[in-house]
Amino acid sequence: MWPLHRRVRAGSGRAARLLVVLAVLAALCAGGFLLLPAGRAFVEDTRDKLGKSKPVTPVSVEASAETRRHPVTNTTDGLSNRYWGAPAAGASATYTFRKPFRFVDLIVTNGASKNPESYPRQARALRLDLEVTTRDGERHRKELTLSDKPGPQTFPIRVSDAKTVRLTLRSPVGLTEGRHLALAEVEFFARS
Q: Which Gene3D superfamilies does the protein's record reference (predicted)?
């Protein structure tokens, strides 16, 4: 007979289809729950890359050590011809911010100045140990390798709810008697 009609018993296969649909939904929910942190990180990274960044200024800056006439506050004064002088490797600067922010980028101007003539007059750190502390006390650590050249160097950070940032100077070059480690400028950027 046309059209072909197939007679089936009432409910035949419906229970199996319902079970398959429920199993697929349960698998999707379980997968979504397990992949939630990775999904959040993916969304935040995408927003960082597509959005614009704005500078953030710390409310306080403290150093574990500094030389006379070269305080750590020189790293946030907006001028790259003044610098923080640290007597030795291992000295650290801690930057505290008024409210937590999405820490997107860090720009570091290494040495005594971004001017090529003034840059080699003091020692420089070729590595910075970065430690970002979030609002809830979680610590994120990263090792930043600096080029031994004048001028700003940008590092992507990508940490949410940053409250304090500590930079520790490591791997000095040019540190001889009568010279100290110099760090001209440190700039922090948040997602706008």
A: Galactose-binding domain-like (2.60.120.260)
